[in-house]
Amino acid sequence: EIIAAVQDTFSANHLARASMKSLASVDLKENETGLLTAADYFGLPITFVERTTLAATAVPHPSETVREKIGVESVCEAAALHLARNTSLIVPKSIHGRVTVAVAQAVSAS
Predict the structure, then answer these.
(1) Integer angstrom CA distances of residue 44 from 32, 37, 40, 104
(2) How far apart are CA 51 and CA 74, in angstroms?
(3) Amino acid 108: pLDDT
(4) pTM (two decimals)
(5) For residue 25, what are the β-bridge partners?
(6) One-character DSSP codes across 35-68
(7) Which residues have a Cβ under 8 Å from the Cβ of 65 and sit 6 or more positions away?
(8) Is 17 strand, coil or helix?
(9) How many Cα atoms are found within 13 Å in the side-chain-facing hemisphere of 68?
(10) Cα–Cα distance between 11 and 60 in angstroms, integer?
(11) Is it the case that residue 36 has pLDDT exceeding 80?
(12) Which pLDDT score, from 0 to 100, does residue 87 have?
């Protein structure tokens, strides 16, 4: 389900698969088989971001549901922005069944 959600997001937004550099999620999911399988499938590293870091990351679409469940307003958007070291998203969160995907472009180190 995660692999299909990522592929659908990239396809729908005309993004090249080769441009994907990493996957990310919340630290609570560090042992989730689906995420680990997706990282292996895409041949990418996966980073599990601490909730305190996610909570400190401003996002355009906070979720009350996520806040109620795990105490932060965002996982996918906050994780994407944090890893990319960016403040804007290429693709805001999009929901694919039980999977939510967001894409941010990494800021190059100067």
Answers:
(1) 16, 10, 6, 16
(2) 9
(3) 73
(4) 0.90
(5) 48
(6) HHHHHHHHT--EEEE-HHHHHTS--SS--HHHHH
(7) none
(8) helix
(9) 3
(10) 22
(11) yes
(12) 86
pLDDT at residue number 79: 96
Distance CA 57, CA 98 (A): 23
Task: Tokens 């590293």: give the residue.
Answer: 45
Task: Please tell me the distance from the alpha carbon of residue 107 to that of residue 110, in angstroms, as a whole number.
Answer: 9
Parallel, antiparallel, or unpaired for β 46-49 and 23-26?
parallel
Res 7 pLDDT > 80: yes
**Residue 45, token pair as written in the block:** 């590293």
Q: Residue 60 has which token pair?
A: 């355009």
- Both structure tokens of 104: 């941010």
Q: Are 99 and 88 in contact (CB under 8 A)?
A: no
% of the chain exceeding 90 in pLDDT:
92
